[in-house]
Design a protein that fits this description.
single chain, about 110 residues, mainly alpha, 3 helices, elongated
């Protein structure tokens, strides 16, 4: 004699899970302090942000206790009338008394924007 299959429970409304509409969670859009400074420099053309970025970056770089002779910024991914990247490099150059060498002028073809 073979085994009998187990009977399935009846599908009642209470037992069938209802699909609920999934609402997106609130996304935290607050920026970090340095992120806000970069935003102000890039999109608001706020020159006071450059000075503050210089202060924060100088403190961070000096904490490494390393010596360097030159600053070589990475090529910007977007063409802008005023390049914030070069502004920051020039500010750090002034603070550390080292030259900026803008040796690389274009990014590699097909390189993704960061």
């Amino acid at each position: 004699m073979g085994r009998r299959p187990r009977p399935r429970p009846p599908l009642h409304r209470e037992r069938v899970p209802r699909l609920r509409r999934i609402r997106p969670r609130a996304v935290d859009t607050r920026r970090t302090e340095i992120g806000d400074l970069l935003y102000r420099l890039k999109y608001r053309n706020d020159p006071s942000a450059l000075e503050e970025i210089g202060v924060v970056a100088e403190k961070f770089i000096r904490s490494w206790r390393i010596k360097f002779d030159v600053i070589v910024p990475a090529p910007p991914t977007r063409t802008r009338r005023v390049q914030p990247l070069h502004q920051i490099a020039d500010e750090l150059s002034r603070r550390f008394n080292v030259p900026v060498v803008k040796a690389v002028s274009k990014r590699a073809t097909g390189a993704a924007e960061l």
